[in-house]
Write a structure and sequence with these properties.
This protein has a single domain, classed as Alpha-Beta Plaits (2-Layer Sandwich). Helices cover about 20% and strands about 35% of the residues. It has 2 helices and 6 strands.
């Protein structure tokens, strides 16, 4: 099993959710985040003073999936979130040793 951590532009949230649904993902954890990197921040002017904001808003998804589904999910997310420009985001792939569904006690793939 894998844990996919997807970092995408906020404007791509719905498209990524649709791509995950189409890939058979039944749920995800979605968090608002901010980050910095190649995209850099932005400048804003307030009452004549310029302020530099060094981070950019992002949305982070966490999705657990079976090993066999990982490649197709990654491709679906890349297609949904990608624009070919700096700031499209990242996908981190982490090995999961186990998952437990608290309500039923199911473990492993049955708990995803």
């Amino acid at each position: 099993m894998k844990l996919l951590t997807l970092i995408v532009k906020p404007s791509k949230t719905e498209l990524v959710k649709e791509a995950l649904d189409a890939s058979g993902i039944g749920g995800a954890t979605i968090l608002e985040a901010s980050g910095y990197g190649s995209q850099r921040g932005q400048s804003e002017t307030y009452r004549g003073t310029e302020y530099r904001i060094d981070t950019n808003p992002k949305v982070m998804f966490q999705v657990a999936c079976d090993d066999d589904d990982t490649s197709s999910i990654i491709e679906a997310v890349k297609n949904a979130a990608g624009t070919g420009k700096i700031g499209d985001g990242k996908i981190f792939i982490t090995e999961l040793t186990d998952v437990v569904r608290i309500r039923t006690g199911d473990t492993g793939s049955k708990a995803i």
